Amino acid sequence: MNVIIVTGASSGIGLAIANYLADKGHHVYGISRTKIHEKLVKGIQADVTDYEQLKNTYQDIFDIEGRIDVVINNAGYGISGSIESTSLDDAKNLMDVNFMGVFHSTKAALPYLRQSGGGKIINMSSVASRLAIPFQAFYSSSKAAINAFTEALHNEVSPYHIQACAVMPGDIKTGFTKNRKKNLQEVAIYEKRVEKSVGVMEDDERNGMDPEVAAKAIHRLVQKKHMPLYTTIGGKYRLFVVLHKLLPARFANFVVGAIYGFKKD
Ligand SMILES: NC(=O)c1ccc[n+]([C@@H]2O[C@H](COP(=O)([O-])OP(=O)(O)OC[C@H]3O[C@@H](n4cnc5c(N)ncnc54)[C@H](OP(=O)(O)O)[C@@H]3O)[C@@H](O)[C@H]2O)c1
Q1: How high is the mean pLDDT of the chain?
Q2: Domains of the chain, earliest start first
Q3: Ligand 1 pocket: which residues have CB below 6 Å?
């Protein structure tokens, strides 16, 4: 049995992970802004943008359980629109939740993971961290930042038996699609391209994998003695990531552009 914290556990991937791990007998604490009403998952209301809230929450969990073994930094959302039209506030808020949230949670957890003799930090990245999606630049950037953070983190804390892993799922059917904040003040020349591009992405998400696929992948990571630094969820997405690595950067980016960027009408 491990003591496990999952951020963003009120819906989608986080909810599936929390329930799956709790069903396997782990003590699971789910963090989100809205209250979780699950039988086996202990829900705690907190916002990942508020470091003090997370610090107090993790201290409470450690006081109750006497240990914290695994932290799954999953909370996140998407925004879409051209870079030119994205407001400064929308870009900052996105980075605050998706990237700073991971930092806050990691910083709050590390002292307890060390006191527990070691543990695991699993950060929810995305295939979009590798294949940067036009008109979703800030989302892709937030996930690329998580990858770099995870690599540095792993080397800082592995001497204390703490491992880090960045998980890159492909499209998964969740509330993510309806929660995506769309820029409603798009610069006119981009409008049609943004609409088409985001439309392609939304279709992929609506026809995406079941969140349980991600839950099972995370469960395998929890069980592993040595986690990989990266793991991609979804067969075809693993292929995309490998191809992206092998192809010349300019060509790989051209292919992504052809799918999601669309030429001028
Ligand atoms: N769905 C996909 O295709 C896909 C693909 C790759 C990666 N991902 C990543 O997977 C993660 C989960 O996404 P999802 O698809 O499950 O979307 P979702 O259904 O919209 O779930 C997002 C979760 O994040 C929580 N959250 C958002 N802002 C928060 C904040 N400030 N503080 C605390 N919790 C917050 C939400 O809870 P509250 O609103 O209750 O706070 C919710 O539980 C995200 O990091 C996303 O980027 C998703």
Answers
A1: 96
A2: 3-260 (3.40.50.720)
A3: 7-14, 31-34, 47-49, 74-77, 97, 124, 126, 169, 171-172, 174-176, 179, 205, 208
| DSSP per-residue codes, 210-252 | -HHHHHHHHHHHHH-SS--SEEEESHHHHHHHHHHHHS-HHHH
Bridge partners of residue 172, in order along the sequence: 209
Three-state SS for 55-95 is: HHHHHHHHHHHCCCCEEEECCCCCEECCCCCCCHHHHHHHH
pLDDT in tens, 178-187: 999 998 889 9
DSSP assigned state of 35 = P
Q: Please state, in angstroms and as integers, the Cα–Cα distance from residue 191 to each residue in 82, 126, 132, 195, 257, following that order.
A: 9, 25, 19, 6, 16
From ligand 1's centre to the CA of 189, what distance in Å?
A: 31
Q: Is 125 part of the annotated catalytic residue set? A: yes
The DSSP secondary-structure symbol of 26 reads -
- Cα–Cα distance between 62 and 58 in angstroms, integer? 6
pLDDT tier at 261, thresholds 50, 70, 90: confident
In contact, 209 and 173? CB cutoff 8 Å: yes
CA dihedral 166, 62, 219, 44 (to 10 degrees): -90
**pLDDT score at 145:** 98
Give the three-class secondary structure for 41: coil
Q: What is the residue whose two structure tokens read 């839950």?
A: 215
